[in-house]
Amino acid sequence: MSHDADETRQGRSQPPSDSDPGNGSPSFGAGPSTDLMVRLVQASPVPMILSEIESGRVVSANHQMESILGYPAKELTGEISPNLYYNPEDRRAIVKLIREKGAVQDRELWSRRKDGSPVRIILSSQRVLCDGVELLITGFNDLTELTEAQSEVQRHQEELAHVTRLNMLGEMASGLAHELNQPLSAIANYAAGLTKRMENRRPDPELIRDTLGRINEQAQRGGEMIKRLRSMIAKRPTKAETVTLNTLAKNVLDLCNQQLMEHRVVVELHLESEASPVKVDPIQIEQIIMNFIRNAIDAMDETPPAERRIELTTRPAGEKQVAVAVRDHGKRLTQDQLDSVFDPFYTTKEKGMGMGLAISESIAMAHGGGLTAQAHPDRGATFTLTLPVYTPTAS
Fold first, then answer.
1. What per-residue confidence (pLDDT) applies to 102?
2. Over 80: is that where the pLDDT of 199 sits?
3. Where is the composition biased (Low complexity) (predicted)?
């Protein structure tokens, strides 16, 4: 089947960052005088200083700088600008880039307030030749409020993800209880059989050893399931680990096994033979895969039992990316559904919250990845999570 005819909805994905700090910006050249540049700095609504490249001496600073560093403008004038950096090496690195490219744009680093405390800033700096002296004109922005806002957004995202996990596991409660009961029942049966064998005047040591091994195996199986459930239920901050999508996919199938059997759904598992690692929060990524699988099960409610099939695939996805995809063979998504599928509160289920895929997309974006939805011409849909491959040098 050609994918050219398929309809695809691309989820929002993390935009690539521009790692070039200078972007090849040209210098002002030899035009402006020092007096003109001082007036420009003083008139700027952006916190700004003018300093000598060689000595680091501040020639001029405007009043807006006080809001960031706590220094009145008069105190900054004549100050040695490397002292304003929490790490003086940062200024030397900036000067080196200025020498090479003429400018530095949107460089994040730590500066030092008057009271000695650090403050996260973003700066852009331009070389300018004034009256025969090389100067730097540098604009600053305080990232503290932005960082705090981002932390608050992340906290709310973690809260939403946690609530969604609880809701999802609550709907799966009966199946999970049955799944957990299986190793417990097996342990009880093995223990009863062992008791009978021990009543024998000459019990077989090898048989006893084998039975104890089976009891231990079932106890570990139950323990692993409880551990996985506790991890899914726990309210916790995001914690990145190096794992493979193969491992996460198999973990999710273990939790969904009973629900799949109850709905008579067969899973075809196609795992990448040489799985590339990703650095992610495993619980959050498992949450996305579980959401895909549960949606696939629901989509096949009206599919004849013999045709209820899910294809779970992990694979490379372009350069330095990997993907996990879940395809169902249920109702075909319409174009309207495809356009809205990642929107908050959109659902085709009578009792659905409509937040599962929206939260999944925000989790994917926070990990530098994205989601896509694809409707197939015959029937069914494929939902795909794409993540960047983790390499220690790139971290």
1. 84
2. no
3. 15-27
